[in-house]
Amino acid sequence: MTGHEPDTTAVTSGRDGSGSLAPALWTSTTWQTSGVPASRDAALAVHQTGNYARYANPTVRAFEQAIAELEGAEDALAFSSGMGAIASTVLALCSTGDHIVAQQQVYGGTHAFLTGPCARLGIEVTFVDGTAPGAFAAAVRPGRTMLVLAETPSNPRLGLVDLDEIGAIRGPYTVVDSTLATPLGASPLRHGASLVLHSATKGIAGHNDAMLGVVAGEKELVDALWGYAVLHGATASPYDAHNALRGIRTLAVRHDRQCESALAIARFLESRAEVSAVHHPGLASHPQHALASAQMRRFGSMLSFELRGGAAAAERLVSQLSLIRPAVSLGGPETLICHPASSTHVGLDVEGRALAGATDGLLRLSTGLEAASDLVADLASAL
Ligand SMILES: Cc1ncc(COP(=O)(O)O)c(C=O)c1O
């Protein structure tokens, strides 16, 4: 811990000590040793470089160390995607007969994993309203609940989970998907969560050119995850880790610009008669704005809004935009719009989509780096 602001840590973290300002890209999958005794030591080592890249790769390790420093964690473990991180973490920690408490309002892939493979393996999941005070703790079954899984802000409706409440839960491991906040927007570990998780594909890498996930926490727990991860094999690529490390260096300025523009767009949409609701934690009208102010350093680049005309109006609006692009994903330089009910949450049934907040008229916007005035003008003309 350096005592610096997180924005500074984004620049200083994950250095390999070689003096090279750009991270080295280690493409090797395997390392030569001095002989059998050294190979044996390497095979028995935990999360150490110098043996085989599925066990550890120096470029990936530098990325992991940067995330650990940013999150105030002892260590971190990278995966080939955010879903790789989620699936591996759940399967590393839970067995048949265990119980998970998760929130209804999560990324569609997380929901599909919990209701599909987890159910098939006999891991029971109770879904709660993550925005309801005390909901997670009330659903914990002492002795049976192995994992509490929260996502804040949540995708796509930008609901918040109270991080102090998650941190106060005793017994199960508590895991917070903090993808939409980025490491510079919130720090779940400082509130007492066991693990913080990111799809680093999003804001962390930040340029739509890396597919990556990461989990950070106490070394003992990260080592335990590593023991499973090397068998699961959702291993992070050094190329993607390299891109993500470069992304981390500029995360603070990119995120500042995106957050500022997101708030400006949210305020503009609130003023429009065609829009019945706007969801963004930075708006005074957000029902959890006080909580957002207390636990977030930045309110994030994401917003969603509900059109009065439902699905038809949403489709029409998207077709009229010229600058904002229809695409999934988030956190990159380009402003992206998506209709969660027919993209990120299309796998859910009508009731599931309603519980997740992916209603027919909802559009989700990931604010990029274009001038906010151009983005507002594009929306105004399309509306
Ligand atoms: C909040 C959240 N968590 C996890 C994921 C999964 O990440 P990835 O696409 O990198 O597997 C996503 C993807 O959109 C997400 O939005």
Task: Sum up the structure in keywords.
single chain; five-stranded mixed β-sheet; binds pyridoxal-5'-phosphate; 2 domains; alpha/beta; seven-stranded mixed β-sheet; Aspartate Aminotransferase, domain 1
Plain-language structure description:
With 383 residues, this protein is α/β, with parallel strands linked by helices. The chain has two domains: 6-247, Aspartate Aminotransferase, domain 2 (3-Layer(aba) Sandwich), CATH 3.40.640; 252-382, Alpha-Beta Complex (Aspartate Aminotransferase, domain 1). It is 39% helix and 15% strand. The protein has 14 helices and twelve strands. The strands form two sheets. Strands 1-7-6-5-4-2-3 form a seven-stranded mixed sheet, with helices on both faces. Strands 8-9-12-11-10 form a five-stranded mixed sheet. Helix 8 links the parallel strand 4 (145-151) and strand 5. The protein is globular and about 70 Å long. It starts with 5 loop residues before the first helix and ends with a helix. 51% of the residues are buried. Pyridoxal-5'-phosphate binds next to helix 4.
